[in-house]
Design brief:
The chain is mainly alpha-helical. The chain is built from five helices and no strands.
């Protein structure tokens, strides 16, 4: 379990003792989104803003589509995950790096980035 995952777990347990299970689920989801945001904006990890305009990005690129209205564009979150894992399966001419296939990001990091991107 990674450092961020342990932190999210500790936060969830602490919140469960104070607020109840409904709030825990919300807190864990918010934590995953925040961790995904950090990975996506990290120039040494996701570096999504090199190609995409997105909330919170400074000096974004415009090679890829803007990351907006993602829930409407990807109502099935698993399709978004497939796109991030290896976009060449959907579009063989894609310039997007295959973050999963080339092990640029771990499976856990991809899950967190998916949560963040889906929230945009």
């Amino acid at each position: 379990m990674g450092r961020l995952s342990r932190t999210a777990l500790v936060v969830a347990i602490a919140l469960a003792s104070i607020t109840g299970p409904g709030k825990v689920k919300e807190a864990v989801a918010a934590s995953m989104i925040e961790e995904g945001r950090k990975i996506a904006l990290d120039r040494k990890k996701g570096n999504c803003m090199a190609c995409h305009v997105m909330a919170g990005a400074t000096l974004p690129g415009n090679i890829g589509p803007p990351l907006v209205a993602m829930k409407a564009r990807f109502p099935d979150k698993s399709k978004l995950r497939e796109q991030i894992w290896d976009s060449s399966k959907i579009n063989p001419n894609s310039l997007m790096p295959p973050f999963g296939r080339h092990e640029i990001l771990t499976e856990d990091e991809i899950d967190r980035v998916v949560e963040f991107v889906h929230s945009l």
